[in-house]
From TrEMBL:
Top-rank EC class of the record's enzyme: hydrolase
Gene source species: Paracoccus suum
Location of this chain's protein in the cell: Cytoplasm
Entry annotated with the keyword Transcription: no
Name used for this protein in its record: 5'-nucleotidase SurE
Cofactor: a divalent metal cation
Keyword Cytoplasm on entry: yes
Entry keywords, A to Z: Cytoplasm, Hydrolase, Metal-binding, Nucleotide-binding
InterPro entries the UniProt entry points to: SurE, SurE-like_Pase/nucleotidase, SurE-like_sf
Length: 264
């Protein structure tokens, strides 16, 4: 198996080492692992691409590249340049340091990388590790993802729908709970949730030179979300798996509008 890896935390992030270990187990001794990851952290960029300026890319070693761009840029760089005529069998994005459950999914560069792969017709999975009291003090805070990731990905590849020929192919968002690997309670197939009142915001500050700046701040990550959601599953010690598409259409609303507005 030929696997392409990217992330949004950057080429030197510890979560990338975790996903390299997962990929090595999946690919086997005859497989290939390619890495094209951002040169610098790109958290919160979503599915952005560097449309108005070029992206510098540098080879760091065999099948390993850093690109000055977003995760979506990195996937495009891999497919159109770094990998030559080769095409990956699977794209893995992550392992993100912090969850991409609930509303975080909307902002996530980790998900943006997987989404771009899906738009290119390649099976793709975004993986994120919830951080909290149960994981932050572990020797390896990514151990839940590292130990449970390979079997979960194999199951998705073998048993999950992919719809790669659809206009908007499915991809999967996986979030591991903030617990030690042996404390993971199982897997839940969930919709994307919404934490109550956990909005992003900005906090102003003034620099020593008198200039005014704004820092983006996330909302609390331990507040409730709807029962059965990805957030609820993660907070209860389960791995969440959520199928997603790049299609942003609200199809039930569209059908209702068509019935109301369009002539019979």
């Amino acid at each position: 198996m030929r696997i392409l890896l990217t992330n949004d935390d950057g080429i030197n992030a510890p979560g990338l080492a975790a996903i390299e270990a997962i990929a090595a187990e999946l690919a086997g001794p005859e497989g290939e692992i390619w890495v094209v990851a951002p040169a610098f952290e790109q958290s919160g960029v979503g599915h952005a691409i560097s449309y108005t300026h070029p992206t510098m890319i540098a080879a760091l070693g065999p099948r390993r590249f850093a690109a000055e761009g977003s995760p979506a840029d990195c996937v495009m760089a891999a497919l159109s340049d770094a990998m030559g005529d080769l095409r990956p069998d699977l794209v893995l994005s992550g392992v993100n340091r912090g969850n991409n459950s609930g509303e975080n999914a909307v902002y996530s560069g980790t998900i943006g990388g997987a989404m771009e792969a899906a738009l290119q017709g390649i099976p793709a999975i975004a993986l994120s590790q919830y951080m909290g009291p149960g994981s932050r003090d572990l020797v390896d805070p990514f151990e839940a993802a590292r130990q449970h990731g390979p079997a979960l990905i194999r199951n998705l590849l073998d048993r999950a729908p992919w719809d790669l020929n659809a206009d908007y192919a499915l991809f999967y968002n996986v979030n591991f709970p903030a617990v030690a690997a042996d404390k993971v309670r199982g897997i839940r197939l969930t919709p994307q949730g919404r934490r109550q009142g956990a909005n992003f915001s900005v906090e102003p500050f003034v620099s020593p030179t008198g200039r005014r700046f704004l820092w983006a701040r996330g909302g609390p990550q331990d507040v409730p979300a709807g029962p059965g959601s990805d957030v609820a599953a993660n907070m209860d010690g389960y791995v969440s798996v959520t199928p997603m598409r790049a299609d942003l259409t609200c199809h039930p609303s569209l059908a209702a509008l068509q019935r109301e507005w369009e002539p019979a």
